[in-house]
Amino acid sequence: MFTNILIPTDGSELSQRAVRKAVELAKVHGARLTGVHVIPDYHLLIAYEGAFDPVTEERIEEEAKARAESYLAFVRTCARDAGIECETVCETSDHPYDAILKTAGARKCDLIVMTSHGRKGLAAVLLGSETRKVLTHGKVPVLVVR
Predict the structure, then answer these.
(1) Model confidence over 50-92: pLDDT tens digits?
(2) What's 45's domain CATH number?
(3) What's the burial of 26, exposed, middle or buried (CB within 10 Å: 0-12/13-18/19+)?
(4) What pLDDT, on a 0 to 100 scale, did the predictor assign at position 52?
(5) pLDDT band at residue 40, thresholds of 50, 70 and 90?
(6) Residues 140, 77, 82, CA angle at the centre, nearest 5°?
(7) Structural domain span for residue 136
(8) How many domains does the chain have?
(9) Which of 18, 47, 81, 128 is 20 to 30 A away from residue 26, measured at CA?
(10) φ and ψ at 118, to 5 degrees?
(11) Comparing C-alpha atoms, which of 88, 92, 113 is closest to residue 44?
(12) pLDDT per residue over 2-37, tens digit each?
């Protein structure tokens, strides 16, 4: 039924649970996995704060890429251990949901497995939910792992 499952990850424990669920599904369906992590576009934030410093920006980007690599390594390791074909990609965007949907389209993914962090109240209103945005704007089925 599914051939390529996209698994967005932010490295959190909840996200790791979703990765494990995606691996299980991929095994059942004989599908492959595509892992994605979206790094925020920090240079806009730094410029907005009025403290533009190329050295600081470079350090922040390097640290973000290192974190992304560790998050995506977890996806690759879980897939490898289960004998599942896997590729990973790191994107940069101020709108993670958009990068997730673009990756799903570009990689021809037919399912997105992601977690919902369950923000409630004012935090949900102010911060929004990337999962909700993926559900709202996407055309690919989404499995939300709680």
Answers:
(1) 555 666 778 888 999 999 999 999 999 999 999 999 999 999 9
(2) 3.40.50.620
(3) buried
(4) 58
(5) confident
(6) 75
(7) 4-145
(8) 1
(9) 128
(10) 65, 35
(11) 92
(12) 999 999 999 999 999 999 999 999 999 999 999 999
Task: State both tokens at 34.
Answer: 């595509």
Encoded tokens for 114: 């992601």
87: region left, alpha or beta (phi > 0 left; psi from -120 to 50 alpha)? beta
Q: What pLDDT score was predicted for residue 61?
A: 86
Among 82, 95, 85, 92, residue whose Cα is nearest residue 127: 95
**d(Cα 76, Cα 53) in Å, to the nearest integer?**
34
Q: What is the pLDDT of residue 58?
A: 81
How far does CA 79 lie from the centroid of its chain?
16
Residue 99, CA atoms < 13 Å, CB-side half-sphere = 19
